[in-house]
Amino acid sequence: MSDIDLLPIYDDSTDPAESATQLDQRRAALVDWWTGSGRAQALDIGWLAFTTTEIHEAVAAGPDHAATRIVDPRWFHGLDKAYGGHAADPDDKLGQAFASWIREVRFHPTVVTTRISTWCRQATDALAEATAAQTEDLTRATHLLRSSARALRMVLIERWGERFGSMGREWTRFERMAERHGQPALATRIAALAAADTATAEQRAARTAVGEDVTWAENARDQIAAYAVHVVRHRPDLDGPWTNSPDPAFDAHLAELRELIAQHG
């Protein structure tokens, strides 16, 4: 299953750091309990948190307010993460108002334009860093190139009026979106640049059980691509040949990605 995502709301008298520590302890205890019960489940809660004052200001404003706030990563990722969500307590009027406001502003043209600009900047910045790093550290350059490709993918998704859900399913979802929007070949090229193609990948029972149209190779690719990102960000000691790093075709992939960003960024 996908992670359970919770976004805490603190009152202004709360110490965010202290509360985050307490929340993480409770999160870990719940995950351990679930795992011990035979139903391992991830719980994502922590840094995507907001204060009551921030939410009061947001729900009283319109999409322009959202567009100005998403320069802050909490708002950039939080608006997308909470889209379609609801307050944990049905009687929480502020939480319900915040969820409703997010549904209203997430795909407003002003917000989408700002998000596209942000993803474009991330794609071009990572590409420039990959180019600069390739001589001294090809493995780091490979990771940056793939990060750039993932950001370019997000540019397209925003332009198509779509969004992601589970990180462990996103590449197959991206390909399905691209098919709907008439650009399957472009999706295939970007997936290859991000080392997320199905050529080298083959557990899909849970996904097919809920009606997903996914092949063995697509499911394996989604999982490997997701965990490869986690390794780069959190456990670089586990990096190695299984992530295909450094990229043996780095120069060709760098040139192709530069071309794609120029065309679609």
From TrEMBL:
Domain of life of the source: Bacteria
Annotated protein name in UniProt: Nucleotidyltransferase domain-containing protein
Lineage: Bacteria, Bacillati, Actinomycetota, Actinomycetes, Micromonosporales
